Amino acid sequence: MVLINSSLKEQVQLLSKIATNDGHSENSPYFEAWKAYDSDPYHSITNPQGVIQMGLAENQLSFDVIKDWIVHNQSASICTSEGVDKFTDIAIYQDYHGLPKFRNATARFMEKVRGDKVTFDPDRIVMSGGATGAHEMMAFCLADPGDAFLVPTPYYPGFDRDLKWRTGVQLVPVICESYNNFRITRTALETAYQQAGSSKTKVKGLLITNPSNPLGTILDRATLEDLVSFINEKSIHLVCDEIYAGTVFKMPEFISIAEIIEEDIKCNRDLVHIVYSLSKDMGFPGFRIGIVYSYNDNVVNCARKMSSFGLVSTQTQHLIAAMLSDEIFVEKFIMENRERLGSRHEMFTQGLAQVGIGNLNGNGGLFLWMDLRKLLKQPTFEAEMELWKSVINNVKLSISPGSSFHCSEPGWFRVCLANMDDETTKVALQRIKKFALQTLGALEVKPKKLSCQRSLKLSLSFQTRDGIMMSPHMSPHSPSSTIA
Fold this sequence. Notes:
Elements: H1 2-13, H2 17-20, H3 29-39, E1 52-53, H4 63-72, H5 87-91, H6 100-113, E2 125-129, H7 130-142, E3 148-152, H8 159-162, E4 170-174, H9 186-198, E5 203-209, H10 221-234, E6 237-241, H11 257-263, E7 272-277, E8 289-294, H12 297-306, H13 314-324, H14 327-353, E9 358-359, E10 367-371, H15 381-395, E11 397-398, E12 400-401, E13 412-416, H16 422-465
Parallel strand pairs: 1-11, 3-4, 3-5, 5-6, 6-7
Antiparallel strand pairs: 2-8, 7-8, 9-10, 10-13, 12-13
């Protein structure tokens, strides 16, 4: 065993520090929940007692609409007899700027999901391998190792990997709290900025997600205007993750940062950048289509050079360009997708309300921010982890605890709703409802028991003070000889 351990240690030492550190954050409960599902996946017939995956923000609700388009437009793919004549043109090296028709179609789609209230220049679109690659690209472009981005909490756990692991960039939390529905306030921003300065950390930017992951809420106009004002005052960058822009399913409407800066003539546009992808709005995470859209010419040029490390395949560009250029299809998909997301969200929130479980009032994203604070034994993160483990191991639901999103308050959990069919959703909802009722019932009984125990302890303590001797078999550390 000693020889084996020694050999493993030597092998690790042959690797780089980046390769062997914990920067990927795989030990986070966020990723641990995925592993629980992978080891025991639910199936309605072959494994009905398995773990249901509710920790993965995938959008599968409108795949039938996309499949129908593909069936009737097979020439869009070079892998069909109808489209194979384009094989040579697509298979050879292409300009890493991206196929012009792909960039044009993507820019138009970005406008459509934002209600045609803004315009995007196709020449400012830079491709990347998903939003993961896009965020790392922005970190490399905007900051040096040791520099920092402010990030409002709670935030997507993947940012700890995407922005920090290989770049050496730091993230400074901007603490947002439930008393005002986790709104981003100027006070919270200033506090985080000053704290970074006190530790000699140079702040290079502010990273926001709108709609929020994990909150499922959108930023209102006043907040967005305040954020633009803040970054202009500090001369720092504003990176806006808008990958859920097309998932807003009820009022109020989504407002893009692009809309704000087009109206604000005082804004320094060189400081504003948008990260987008088709992973959430279209449900294409496997296609790895990430987008950086910057108003800064130097950032566009730099990012385009870096995109060589994570290009979108030309076969994918070719297919997506044809699909997104079909205006009738795009209109139908956006409308249908929003309706289905809204129905799924309403079904789940109403089911939770039946057993007294609330959630943050959201209107976007593929998830909800579930409030299980009343199920905690104590208002601590230790109690949150205990509750989370019970949900994973006993209820067999893979959900994500708020602490993995750097939430400042224990008891919040993100629950993904769009990566399963209706029947699986009903099973998951029934499991949560049953667990909530059982847990609430146990917590209601527990205080009575504690009250009886405390009365007994007080009685024994009183008797001891009156001179009654402790039993020789009773330890000074036994429960009945101490005051809780």
